[in-house]
Amino acid sequence: MFAWRRTAVRKRVVVNQKERAFRGVLWAQRGPLLVLRDAELLEAGREPQRVDGEVVIERSQVEFTQVLASGGG
């Protein structure tokens, strides 16, 4: 059922939440958490904003996740 998550680890993704999204490398999945590295904050009407460090997102807050093609970003 959740096999896509394993195949998405270490790939570039866009994690979409209700009012924002993050683009980055899905580095790890730790229980109910997703960890992104090399991330950018994406908000409607604004330029992508680089985020320092790791972004930790609760899976319950994720609307959907997109796995990007190689070089996507």
What does this structure look like?
It is a single chain. This protein is mostly beta strands. It has a single domain, classed as SH3 type barrels (Roll). Helices cover 8% and strands 49% of the residues. The protein is built from one helix and six strands; from the N terminus they run αββββββ. It has one helix at 3-8, and strands at residues 12-16, 21-30, 33-42, 49-51, 55-58, 64-67. Strands 1, 2, 3, 4, 5 and 6 form a six-stranded antiparallel beta sheet that branches. Strand 1 (12-16) and strand 2 (21-30) form a beta hairpin. It is globular and about 30 Å long. The mean pLDDT is 89.
The oligomeric state of the chains shown is: single chain
Average residue pLDDT: 89
Residue runs with pLDDT of under 50 for 5 or more positions: none
Number of strands: 6
N-end to C-end Cα span: 27 Å
Largest sheet: 6 strands, antiparallel
Structural class by SSE content: mainly beta
Order of helices and strands: HEEEEEE
The number of domains: 1
**Count of helical stretches:** 1
User: In CATH's first tier, which class applies?
Assistant: Mainly Beta
Instruction: Estimate what percentage of residues fall within beta strands.
Output: over 45%
Describe the protein's topology.
Elements: H1 3-8, E1 12-16, E2 21-30, E3 33-42, E4 49-51, E5 55-58, E6 64-67
Antiparallel strand pairs: 1-2, 1-6, 2-3, 3-4, 3-5
Can you describe this structure in just a few lines?
The chain is mainly β. It has one helix spanning 3-8, and strands spanning 12-16, 21-30, 33-42, 49-51, 55-58, 64-67. The chain is built from 1 helix and 6 strands; from the N terminus they run αββββββ.
